[in-house]
């Protein structure tokens, strides 16, 4: 089984690729290694994958239509797991074209590659952000998602519509996975777990938006990866060409409780600067993952205390080994 994983040097991409490699899959990892955040972290992740004999890495931008088409033609993939995207809700307000390039044009090149190469199954990353200001909780795949509050969310909803269209026109089997606030070792430095941990260890102030009145369905990376792995296998034999699933912990945790867990495992008290809601943000995310459980028997196992402990331990080790340029 040969699988293409896009965004292989990213947070979710690296962990997913490692799972596939450990299971014996042949994986081609693709990433453009951009500088949205420090590329050294992407290189660190990539270094965890390169020792595998069944892994090959290709540096390429998904907007390179000819390059991507040639890659599909040459490699004859069985499946594609598309995790590459320009991430970050707040950054989409500052750099909107980065999102249309990566998340719309880039996704189209993947869809074209899949339909021209008769790919067995395309699994792609969507996001809980598509639910916008949805007041009904927990969020269900049956809820309306036509009122995004950020461009990032709009691009992810567009991806779902594009995939559905290709499934209808070309009988391409596609599965979109709506991830809920993923965290864990090797996570992104622009997200709260990293930002808060780094500031707390340096005894600096953390910015807490909406005066702390935020709730998130924090989902540990291992649980996300297990869901991806199971669904890429399961849907290949499904009679339905296009599906959407939530992947979340199905628990909506107060941001202040998450900060308390960080305080416990860092041994540092957080100095909090309470601020108003950021544009594009939402007050709550909360996943109903019943549909995924019914399909593949997947249910997250890692609670926030365990997950935060694992992240903090990794963060301490990573920052120690990268201090002073080492």
Automatic annotation (TrEMBL):
SUPFAM superfamilies: NAD(P)-binding Rossmann-fold domains. It comes from the Bacteria. Keywords: NAD. Residues 4-310 form the NAD(P)-binding domain. PANTHER family: EPIMERASE-RELATED. This is Protein CapI. It comes from Alteromonas lipolytica.
């Amino acid at each position: 089984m040969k699988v293409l994983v896009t965004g292989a040097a990213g947070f979710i991409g690296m962990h997913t690729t490692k799972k596939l490699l450990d299971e014996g899959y042949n994986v081609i990892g693709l990433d453009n290694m951009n500088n949205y955040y420090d590329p050294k972290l992407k290189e660190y992740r990539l270094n965890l994958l390169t020792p595998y004999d069944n892994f090959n890495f290709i540096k390429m931008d998904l907007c390179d239509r000819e390059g991507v088409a040639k890659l599909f033609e040459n490699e004859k993939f069985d499946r594609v797991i598309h995790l590459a995207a320009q991430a970050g809700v707040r950054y989409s307000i500052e750099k909107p074209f980065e999102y249309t390039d990566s998340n719309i044009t880039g996704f189209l090149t993947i869809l074209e590659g899949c339909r021209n190469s008769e790919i067995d199954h395309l699994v792609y990353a969507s996001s809980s952000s598509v639910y916008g200001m949805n007041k009904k909780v927990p969020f269900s795949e049956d809820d309306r998602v036509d009122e995004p509050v950020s461009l990032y969310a709009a691009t992810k909803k567009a991806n779902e519509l594009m995939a559905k269209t290709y499934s209808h026109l070309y009988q391409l089997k596609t599965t979109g996975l709506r991830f809920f606030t993923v965290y864990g070792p090797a996570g992104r430095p622009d997200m709260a777990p990293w930002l808060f941990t780094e500031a707390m260890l340096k005894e600096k102030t953390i910015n807490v938006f909406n005066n702390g009145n935020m709730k998130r369905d924090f989902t540990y990376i291992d649980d996300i990866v297990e869901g991806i792995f199971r669904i890429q296998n399961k849907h290949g034999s499904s009679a339905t060409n296009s599906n959407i699933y939530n992947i979340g912990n199905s628990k909506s945790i107060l941001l202040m409780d998450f900060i308390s867990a960080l305080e416990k495992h860092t041994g540092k008290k957080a100095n909090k600067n309470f601020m108003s809601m950021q544009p594009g943000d939402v007050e709550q995310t909360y996943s109903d993952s019943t549909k995924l459980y019914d399909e593949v028997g997947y249910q997250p196992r890692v609670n926030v205390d365990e997950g935060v402990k694992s992240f903090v331990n990794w963060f301490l080790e990573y920052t120690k080994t990268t201090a002073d340029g080492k």
